[in-house]
Prior knowledge:
It is a single chain. The protein has helices spanning 19-32, 39-45, 95-98; strands at 69-71, 78-80, 84-88, 91-94. By secondary structure, the chain is α+β, with helices and mostly antiparallel strands. The strands form 2 sheets. It has a two-stranded antiparallel sheet with strand order 1-2. A hairpin with a 2-residue loop joins strand 3 (84-88) and strand 4.
Amino acid sequence: xxxxxxxxxxxxxxxxxxxxxxxxxxxxxxxxxxxxxxxxxxxxxxxxxxxxxxxxxxxxxxxxxxxxxxxxxxxxxxxxxxxxxxxxxxxxxxxxxxx
Length: 99
């Protein structure tokens, strides 16, 4: 909706709306508006095609650190030993964190 900024503005003297009139306009607008729908209800109704994962359990096998791996002290990612950039105070840092 376009706004005409050159049009004369209302002053307080021009405004004759009482508080009761403003309240009645406000309640009319609220009663005529649609009922708000909770977003979680919308998300529950949405289903991905062919993806019924409700009964699935994720099983992840965690392996201990291998002999050729290290954990970067900065990013905490497990990397191959060829990615070691430096060692400081007994802690290893990867090339990505050092660049």
